[in-house]
Design a protein that fits this description.
Keywords: Plasmid. The chain is α/β, with parallel strands linked by helices. The chain has 5 helices and 15 strands.
Length: 272
């Protein structure tokens, strides 16, 4: 199974900018790169902070950028989003029975879970009892399948500035994951940094934001921002095995031409 992962698109209507960056143009570039490198993917996951300033117009324009993708797209929401406006604007309903933007994708040997950590009026994340009940039901209904969780806010400390707005009161979430025993990895947005680690034995990965990157500062205070590298991930899942490949869309490094015999033979046969 191939999954494209993108986070923190912070889309804004044409003519405006986020941190001086045209996020409308950036998203167009990202979608072209998805088609070029992973057009055969099974699903694309956009992990929250879809728009920078939520409005019906912003969401409709945002969704239209994905029309050219052949794969289905799963949208999560983050602290910059608005759940009500999102659900009014999204082309396909993606809410659970309690109105949270949560859904699941189940294959023969894997279970992908898309969580709603949006906490209205706050930058911090929330994963309260009603949301947790949904997660528990999904995990326990497929105990023999490897589960992969996607969520916007981290429920743990990353060491970055953004830790002030992680998921609040996340002990119950950790207990649910441990009790289920089939969660293989958690994928996170929000940090605008690429990092990995484990949370009491549960491994996790974060991605750079598509628009701005938070500068590498493990000190108190708000970090500087960088324009790029506009990262996406290509996740390959084979049951209990998975690997996430990072790809920088704004790649400043030129390809080095091969000199002499190539390690990978051309399709026409060995070189002379």
């Amino acid at each position: 199974m191939k999954v494209v992962v993108v986070s923190d698109t912070h889309f804004i209507v044409p003519g405006e900018a986020v941190q001086g960056i045209d996020s409308n143009d950036r998203l167009q570039t990202c979608v072209k790169e998805i088609n070029r490198l992973a057009g055969d993917a099974d699903v694309c996951v956009v992990m929250g902070d879809l728009v920078d300033r939520p409005s019906g117009e912003a969401y409709r324009l945002f969704f239209s950028h994905f029309d050219c993708l052949k794969m289905p797209v799963q949208f999560l929401i983050g602290n910059h989003d608005d759940r009500g406006v999102f659900l009014e604007s999204v082309p396909v309903a993606s809410a659970d029975a309690n109105g949270f933007v949560q859904s699941a994708l189940e294959t023969d040997n894997a279970l992908l879970l898309f969580l709603d950590t949006h906490n209205p009026g706050s930058n911090s994340g929330d994963y309260g009892p009603e949301k947790l009940q949904w997660l528990n039901s999904k995990l326990t209904s497929a105990p023999d399948k490897s589960a992969y969780i996607f969520m916007h806010h981290p429920p743990f400390r990353t060491g970055f500035f953004i830790d002030h707005s992680k998921v609040e009161h996340s002990d119950a979430l950790l207990n649910t994951i441990h009790a289920a025993g089939n969660v293989r990895h958690i994928f996170i947005g929000h940090t605008h940094r690429a990092a990995s680690g484990h949370w009491n034995g549960v491994t996790w990965t974060t991605l750079q934001g598509l628009v701005n990157e938070n500068d590498f500062e493990l000190l108190p205070g708000k970090p500087n921002y960088r324009n790029g590298p506009a990262q996406k991930g290509i996740l390959l899942i084979n049951g209990g095995e998975s690997v996430l490949h990072f790809h920088d869309i704004l790649n400043p490094y030129p390809i080095i031409a091969h000199s002499g015999r190539s390690i990978r033979e051309p399709s026409g046969g060995p070189s002379s």
